[in-house]
Specification:
This protein is mainly beta. The chain has no helices and 16 strands. The strands form three sheets. It has a six-stranded antiparallel sheet, with no helix packed on it. Strands 9-8-7-10-11 form a five-stranded antiparallel sheet, with no helix packed on it. The termini are far apart.
Length: about 190
Amino acid sequence: MISVNDFKTGLTIEFDGNLYRVIEFQHVKPGKGAAFVRSKLRNLRSGSVNERTFRAGEKVEKAQIDTRKMQYLYANGDMHVFMDTESYDQVELPETSIEYELKFLKENMELSIIQYKGETLGVELPNTVELEVIETEPGIKGDTSGGGSKTAKLETGVMVTVPLFINVGDRLIINTSEGAYVSRAQ
């Protein structure tokens, strides 16, 4: 058991019979009344995000999550196949459990699979991925990084806002937690 005062982003807890990952938390000490912790929790089984307020000092169960390095192989209908890079075991995950992550997955990409007591819950993306621009308005000579922005479609189908100087064929670094442009790849 851990105290909600010890929450950290990325911590996994077991609460109300479900597994949650802490996305955000904020310690609040009002002038009048007891302190509390306001948090955003992602349900690892359903993917839904819930906001929850805990009393300061309240105890919750810390969940022991295992991660395995795996490689994304291919989509088989609405199932997606991953392979353990050491044992070559394969795991299939339904599209519904990794809907957000699919925006950033390419074939042969290495990532971590999240498991809890043998149950596969989903995938953990790296902080950033490198993706190629396949569709955007052409860049205009003289556009600078401090100028405006436009929308670009990347090779996985995800749409991101990029600076005006980005062109089709450019490789970009994308932040997976926000789905946002970081920089051009070298």
